[in-house]
Amino acid sequence: MNKKVLVFYLGLLFCGTVCAEEVQKSELQQRAEAVDVKQNIASARSLYIQAFGDYVKKGQTRQGIECAVKATALYYRENFYKEAFDLLRRADQTIMSAKAGDSEKSAMHYLTTKERMQMYIKLRKGASAQDQLNYMERLASQANDESVSNDLLYNKAIYYYTFGQTSEGNAVFKEMANKLTAQKEYDKVDEVFKTLIASGRRSNNASLVAQSYSSYIAWKDSTDAMKIADEIGALKKQIADNEAAISEKDSSLTTRMVFIIGLAILAAALAAVLLVGAFVLMRFILQTRRQKKLIAQANENNALKAKFISNISAQLEPSFKKLDGNNAEVKALLEFSNHIQTLSELDNTIDEPVELEDVSVPSFCEEVMSHINGKVKEGVTLTTNAPKMSASVNKEYVSHILLHLLKNAAIYTPAGGTIVLEFKKRSAHTLQFLVSNTGSTIPEEKREDVFKPFLEIRDLSQGDGLGLPICKQMAVKMNGDLEIDPAFTKGVRFVLDLHV
Questions:
Q1: pTM, whole model, 2 decimals?
Q2: CA gap 196, 194 in Å, rounded
Q3: In the structure, what pLDDT confidence band is assigned to residue 322 with cuts at 50, 70 and 90?
Q4: What pLDDT is recorded for position 458?
Q5: Which of 245, 376, 385, 424 would disulfide-bridge 380, Cβ 3.0–4.6 Å?
Q6: Are the CB atoms for 393 and 500 separated by under 8 Å?
C-alpha cells in the first residue's frame, strides 16, 4: 500500500501549486543534478547550496528548500552531520522569514524536519527520531495537504520498522492499505512496497526489509485475488449492461436470441478467466511460499555453517599447536584458524552491543603507532595527528583495526615514504580514525573486494585475506564502518567511522 503514498508525495514535489516559471529549474540546480555524486559529491553539494541561495534571492523559497534538503543528504552521506544540521537550521530560518502562508510554511518545514528524522534514524537515535516524527505530525496537520499526510504515513512505517516496533509498523501499513486500495491503484501500491524494501536495503536495515517483504507477500496474495474479483465484477456488469440495453432497445424474439447467445459467449469467457486466474493465483502463492521457505532455510544453513566451521577450527587448534611452531605453514594454519573463529564470533554476535571506555586520544594513537616502530623501511616517517581530548571507544576492536592497518602500511610503504594516523571528531556523535600511507594505490575495482572474505583460493603462507574483512565486521559491530577514501590519490587512506 505504501506505493500510493510515494506516488502522492512525488505528486506534491512535481505538481505543486506554483506557476510555470517557478516550476522551471534554475541553471544551478540543473548543473547540480548533472553531477555524478559517486565521482564528485562535494561539487554536487556545493551547487545545490548555491541553488538554494539563488532561489531564496528570487523569492522562490520552496525550490530553494528542496535544494537545501538535497545538499543536506549529500552532507550526511559522507557523515558530515554537523554541516548537515547547520544547513537545515539555515533553511528553517529562511522559511520563517519567507513571504508565504502558514500552511505553505508548514509544508516546507515538514521537508527539513523529515531530513532530520532520517539522519537520526541513520545514527540509530530512536528518541531524537521520534521527536522529529511527532513534529512532522503537527506540521502535516497544519499544512492541510493530503500528499503530506500520506508521506507522513510512509515515514512512520520506516521509523517503526527501523526500531523494531513491528506492531505499530503493521498498523500504519494497514491504514495506508485502507486508504489506497479503495482507489484500486494496485500498481502504485506495488511500487511503494518495493521502494520501502529498497530503502531498508540501502540503510542495511534487516528488520525493515524483512517486515516490508512479509507485508508485501501477504498483500500480493490478497491483491491478486482482488484483481480477479474486479475483472469478474466488470464482466458481470458488462453482461448486465448488455442485457439491459438489448432488452430496452428491442424486445423481439430475434433480439432475445442474440442476447442469449451473447450471454453464453460472455459466460464462457468468464469461466475461462476464472480458470486461468485461479491457476495463475495458485501458482504464484505456491512459488512465493516456496521462496520464503528457501530463504529462511538458507539463512539457517549459513548460521549453522559458520558455527560448524568455528567449532572445527577450535578443535583443530590444539593439534596445530603441537606441531613445529617455527614452520611457516603451521604458523599460517594457526593464524587462519584464529581468523576463522574471530570472523564466526563476530557474525554470530553482530547485533550485541560493545563496551565503551574513555581513552586519551593522543596517548592512544601514539601507543598504537609504537607497535610498528622498527618494522618500516628505511627513511619512512611515522606521524600521529590527534587533538588533546578524550573519546569513548571500544579499545579492543579499535586497537585491532588500527594496528592491522598500520602493519599493512609498514609492508607496502616504500623507503622514504610516510605513514600517518589521524583522529577527527566530525560531530557530537561521530568519530573518525584515518590511516594513510604513501605509495601505490588500490585499483578502484578492487576496493570493495578487499573487505570480502573467501573471494579466492589463497596460499595461506602468503596470508588468508581475512584481516580486512575481520576489521570491517568489527567496525560494523561498533555501529560504524571501514572504507577506503577514494579522494586520496597519493597512496592509500583507510577511514574508520564510529557513531557513538
A1: 0.41
A2: 5
A3: low
A4: 64
A5: 376
A6: yes
